[in-house]
Amino acid sequence: MTSRAGSRGVPLPGSLSGTELLLAVVLLAFAALAWLLSHSLATPGMRLGILTGARPMAPSGFEWARFGFFLLTWLVMMTAMMLPGITPFTIGMSRLLRVRRAGTGSIPALFVGYLLAWLLTGVAAYACLRAFDALAVSGSATAARSGAAVLVAAGVFQFTPLKQWCLVHCRSPMALLMRHGQRAVRSRRGALLVGCGHGAYCIGCCWALMVVLLAAGMMSLVWMAGVAAVITVEKVLPHGRQSSYAIGALLLGAGLVLLVFPELVGAVA
User: What domain of life does the native source organism fall in (predicted)?
Assistant: First the structure.
């Protein structure tokens, strides 16, 4: 490990070249644009969930159109929430690709692969959202207790070996670089697959938090920012495992309180 990289193999801010600094600025600018688009695309119903007093959505004869719009908003939302967290990984990969004289287009392919992995999860996310819509029809108490169960399940997941295994890979992207970097160097397709691989680890780490976001209001900027902050704390700040456990304890506590007092959902909403 050189002095130009942090302990987890990602470049330190002070070690960035002018080109790498420009790449970081471009990625963060895309993230900022995605936050603005999230605000613009969000309908009032998409800012509420079963944890925030959502009402059942009216039946629509344009289900495929609704599904397509959901995937669009999901992709924009993932860009807004995840892009800042993968900026160090992308810069580290760009440095590797430059040293090994890879062809042009590998970094965009890496970025597209990462977002493609998250886009595919949008299918499961849509099914989850439809299930939450059905729960909203059942009444506020049922919906609130269901949301509380989501919080409890997400809290429990924070303590599981799978969560910690995925978190280690998310916090140490150099392991992915060392194992699969040569594939990314060989072709844009290889870079695309490496991006998908890193996205898969992030999905394994964050899927439960995303379900919490769906239950709270997927396009609410407040809830998006809260979940994005939690993900950043886990992935970037020191003591990631301890942070993960603390977040799990908070989710468990909130879920158990709402199971006993579901009327608090109405009070907060």
Answer: Bacteria
